[in-house]
From TrEMBL:
<dbReference type="InterPro" id="IPR000182">
    <property type="entry name" value="GNAT_dom"/>
</dbReference>
<feature type="compositionally biased region" description="Low complexity">
    <location>
        <begin position="11"/>
        <end position="30"/>
    </location>
</feature>
<dbReference type="GO" id="GO:0016747">
    <property type="term" value="F:acyltransferase activity, transferring groups other than amino-acyl groups"/>
</dbReference>
<dbReference type="Pfam" id="PF00583">
    <property type="entry name" value="Acetyltransf_1"/>
</dbReference>
<feature type="compositionally biased region" description="Gly residues">
    <location>
        <begin position="1"/>
        <end position="10"/>
    </location>
</feature>
<dbReference type="InterPro" id="IPR016181">
    <property type="entry name" value="Acyl_CoA_acyltransferase"/>
</dbReference>
<feature type="region of interest" description="Disordered">
    <location>
        <begin position="1"/>
        <end position="41"/>
    </location>
</feature>
<protein>
    <recommendedName>
        <fullName>N-acetyltransferase domain-containing protein</fullName>
    </recommendedName>
</protein>
<feature type="domain" description="N-acetyltransferase">
    <location>
        <begin position="1"/>
        <end position="102"/>
    </location>
</feature>
<feature type="compositionally biased region" description="Basic residues">
    <location>
        <begin position="31"/>
        <end position="41"/>
    </location>
</feature>
Amino acid sequence: MPAVRGGDGAAAGREALAPGRPASVGGHRVPPGHRGRGHARRLRDAALAHAAAHGVTAVGVDTAEPAGDLLGLYRRWGFADRDVIRWPGKTYDSVVLVRDLAAA
């Protein structure tokens, strides 16, 4: 999976691509001292553009259900709730959200 990282190391993520199929984007991390500068937005834009250019039809993310701030962010970015799951070995539920790239 290719990694995407800002030149100053401020944001990082990884993506998995399969043409004509959904993809997932995970590992968005912006350290507290770098937040509010658009790093996550640029990472999102690059990942979605890369996925669309490779024929990906939808992109999914998941985050812990208690992480209301992250859920709000993903929803503002056009991701819609798809499912609630509990990953093996975890003690909390995760919300799976999907953004259809054809509608973007």
